[in-house]
Amino acid sequence: MVEPVGKIDKPEPRWQAVLALLAVGGIYVALPRPLIVGPKWALPIFIVVLIAPTVVAHRMGKHSLNRTLGIIISSVITLALIASVGLLVAAVPSHKEAPVALLCSGAELWLTNVLVFALWYWRLDGGGPTLRDQRREFGSRSFVFPQMQIEKIERDRFHIDGWRPGFVDYLFIALTQSSTFGPTDAPLLARWAKLLAMAQICISLTIVIVLISRAIGVL
Length: 219
What we know:
By secondary structure, the protein is mainly α. Helix content is 63%, strand content 2%. It has one domain (12-215). It is built from 8 helices and 2 strands; from the N terminus they run βαααααβααα. Strands 1-2 form a two-stranded antiparallel ribbon. Helix 1 packs antiparallel against helix 2, helix 1 packs antiparallel against helix 4 and helix 7 (167-180) crosses helix 8.
C-alpha cells in the first residue's frame, strides 16, 4: 500500500488545520454558558496562545516541539468537547434550555466533534504531517483511501502518482464517521485510528440520542 516516489513535491499546507482549531475556539464561545466548563474565554485563548509557538516551532525545524504542542492542543480541546457533551446530557432532563437552543448546541458540538477528530487523524497518521513530508510516500499508513486502491499503472491517468492525504481528506473521514457512525470513505488499518474512531462515534451517538430523546419527550 505504501510506496515511495522519486519526485519532490511541495510540503503539505497547514493553514487548514490552523483554521479548524480557530473554528473550534469560535464554536466553543458560541455555546450556551451552562455547557462550558470554566471561563468561556479560557479555551479560545489557550488555542490562540499555543498556535503561535506551534507554528514558530514548525518554521524553525523543531519538529518534536511542534508535535508535542499539537498533541497538547488536541488533547485539551478533546477534553473540553467531552465535558460539554456531558453537560449537554445533564442539562436535558432539567428542560432549562429552549428546544431550538438545545438543537443548536447539539449541532455545534457535533461539528466540533468532527473538527477535533479530523485534527487527531491528521496529526497522528504516519507520524504526522512533518514525517509524511519527509518520507514522500504514496498514500497513508493508517487508512486505505480510495486513491490507494487504484492500480499503479492507472494512477497517472488520475494524476495521483505520489499522492498523500491532506487535512481535507482526514476531515472527510471524520465527517462521514460522525454522519454514518462508521468508516465509509477509508477503511481503518491502525489500532489507534480504530480507537479514536470508536470514541468519535460514541460522542456523535450520544449527541444524537440526547437530541432525539428530548424531541420525542423521553427526557
